[in-house]
Amino acid sequence: MTASYRPSCDKNWGLSGGGGRPGKKRKQGAHCESVTVPKEDVKKSEDHNGTFDSNRKIWRCVRFLSPSMFHCSRFIRTFTSAASRRTTSWDPTVSLKLDHPTLIILEKCGTRKDFKQILTQMFRIHLIFQTFPMSRLLQFSALTNPENLDIAVVLFSHFTPNPNLYIYNTMLRALSFSSNQSIAYYQSMLYSCIFPDEHSLLALLRFPRSSSEGKQIHTHVIVTGLCSNLYLQNSLMKMYLENQEMKYAREIFQHVQRRDIASCNIMITGLARNGHNFEALKLFHNMVVSGLEPDQYTIVGLLLCCGQINDSFKVKSIHAWTVRRTPADNWGIILCNALLDMYAKCGEMDIALRIFEGLKEKDAFSWNTMIARFSDHGNLDLAHRLFDQMPNKDLVSCNSLLSGYAQSKNWNSAIKVFGDMIAYNVRPDKLSIVTLVCSAADLGLLYEGRVLHGWLYKNNIELDAFMASALIDMYCKCGSVDRAIMIFNKIPQRDVAAWTAMISGLACHGRGAKAAELFYKMQEDGIIPNSLTFIAVLTACSHAGLVNDGCIIFEAIKQSYGIDHTVEHYGCLVDLLTRAGRLEEAREVVENMPMKPSRSIWGALLAACKAEGNLELAKIASRELLKLEPEEESGYVLLANLHAADGNWSYSDNVREIMKSKGVKKMAGSSVVFIDGIAHQFAASDGNHPMWEVICCILSNLNREMKLDTAHC
């Protein structure tokens, strides 16, 4: 192949990194040896019209490809004898037609085993050393059947002494998923003084690249004179948008001379994903005015904009516009799924369900969208019904339903879904396990949590920091701190989440000094605390009464770590001061906060006023608390109890009358008891439990026996 301009072989011209042929150098003892075939051997083979000339070095390399190749089947023997009986007039240096019998069968090959047999035959007749047959081998093994990519890499590295542009482009396309490998092959191509074309650069841009790599590829596009190629311009725009380099993406888009619908779709979708929704809508308007006809991918980009701004009216407008211009029968599954997702995100579940039921074709995304959204909205009965109707249940649908039941604290249904996953041969992942562990932690189910922990060991699932953090949190919330410490000590690589979970667990159990010690040890190990870590350690100081330590840590959040104080940090500081009885300091903190105090801050101040008998400050805190949440009963009850404790019964009665006039009722306390994995909930003065009479009878008997024991004592 010739070109008007060829790059020099200067090593600085390539992308950053080393040059040379990838895979050319191999370590001692590797599976495959580098083979150099003497010219006289090749010539001798050619003189024998394709008959096999024994070469032990070649066979040693063939052994890497498959040991079974040495046991030539009847298929190979037939081909060998056929090749020996007649002389082939096919010349690879002149003809590029697939008229050689081995190449014809290669095109029809369907399995890896057959491919290895054909490869053996090509070794036998020395066809493998010709450029065109090698290009067909690489095309078949690297692209047509990518499961043979490992063989393609060996063939390229050891049996392709003079690869051409087509062969390099084939390998670049096959290895485009790997940034390091594809760039190494591209560097090898430049070192071989082979001029890249648009297919070479498109292969490099095929998968997401970092911003620095993308800019280097963009430079090569300019150097090679291909900057006006529309396909490359679209790929560069997509790359910059994925890396949030909006400036460069806009510049390329503005310099596109003949924009097509793909250019506009890439730009609209990229702007929407980066939050520039109104700019994307404006671009759509300009596109329609310029005469470009939108397709379904354009509509998907517009729907993405509406989902970002959570505007159901715009979703309906785009839906109506699409119905008016395109019959629903011509919509693709991608557009239908986008409509489903956007309506569901905007809370229009009835419309989403009507669209879903009207779909002639439903894929896994359609089912998963409906199951996940109905689970998120708490409609678990309908979500479970759709789950049962789903033809091929997958991990996404199972996890969506599992998460929905866990959020609604329905442990029995959640564990049933987990059992169904195993029955459907859907292997649970980390998210499945963590969802159940967190549900057990919220409900205080120590036994069930230990069962899940045992399931992980039974199935040889190694604990990483993510799952270990969930187990630590569960054991701490269920009161088994020692087990949590044991898991924490076994984590091979602790991240900030694991440290935070352990500190928080120790804080909740009053081990503030141990939590603070762990906080300092965490920094010694090189782990930088985050905002949640500081909330945990401040809570530990509050529960342990370490007021001075807590104040020092609070000041260090901004000064030493550069983290802005949040309302949660101020809430911890106020709780720390009020527990120590320093109400005036807590009041000063609340008055000087840069943001509005939250309900928890005023609640902590109000509870401390009750404990200290500070009625004046209690009135201020109560007034502010009721401004934030006038329908919550806690502020009214605390204030009424405070007046009653001070002997002001008339004020206490007035507060309760105000509650009654506003329709605010004090929620009855309740408790949950799990027996054999079944949750039993009890509320004060609630006789609705199906076994209420049996429970009352047993309690009466227990009460009578306790009185008898007391009388005997």
UniProtKB/TrEMBL annotation:
PROSITE patterns: PPR
Keyword annotations: Repeat
Annotated segments matching region Disordered: 1-33
Keyword Glycoprotein appears in the UniProt entry: no
UniProt superkingdom: Eukaryota
Keyword NAD: no
Classification via Gene3D superfamilies: Tetratricopeptide repeat domain
GO molecular function annotations of the record: mRNA binding
Renumbered ranges of PPR repeats: 260-294, 332-362, 363-393, 394-428, 464-494, 495-529
Xref: Pfam families: E_motif, PPR, PPR_2
GO biological process: RNA modification
SUPFAM superfamilies (alphabetical): TPR-like
Protein name (record): Pentatricopeptide repeat-containing protein
Organism encoding this protein: Colocasia esculenta
